[in-house]
Design goal:
Helix content: under 10%
Order of helices and strands: EEEEEEEEEEEEEEE
Oligomer: single chain
Structural class: mainly beta
Shape: globular
CATH topology: outer membrane lipoprotein receptor (LolB), chain A
Length: 213
Amino acid sequence: MTRKYRLLIVLACLLPGVSVSGNGPSKTWQFEVSLDGSPIGFHRFELVESGDAHQLQSEASFDVRFLFFNAYRYRHTNTEVWSDGCLRSIRSMTDANGEDARVSGMRVDDRLLIRADAGETSLDGCVMTFAYWNPEFLRQPRLLNPQTGEYLPVRVEPLGEQRISVKGQAVEANAYRLLAEELELIVWYSEANEWLGLQSTAKGGRILRYELT
């Protein structure tokens, strides 16, 4: 997969036998996704709280067209369960242009057991994915890639305030650059640490961008 779509492998994750009650408070982020300003699809996140547990469900659907042809197709459904700020279980299912990828994981005692196409991994400590909804993920030295199961070293750089468009309005936001292997992202948050948007600079300078709708 080219770096153009590298962002797609880190966007969070159906659950191996664990869930939280759907009766608690919930929050939804609905993003329009564009490539160089042209809409290519959506990514929707829903976070449900139940006591100290959180369940995040998301669905992504992208289609990049060239002339009259669909040059790239991406489908991703996922759920993550969190407890006390750490990942408790995860499962992802992805179709990236006909290539299927699956990752599942469950916390057993003090370790997170991950199964992916590349094999099985056991991770200790508090493991987090690229959990854009929770700014605490920016403090982590490593993050779990929910599509591949890789545990990636990351580096975060504060960029200060930037003006972006949120639901058609220009707002000031705190920006952070996130670097992990070939991945380079910018994530924006409000003063109250609400997730507002995301952008990736792809190969050839193309811009993949998430805007709240």
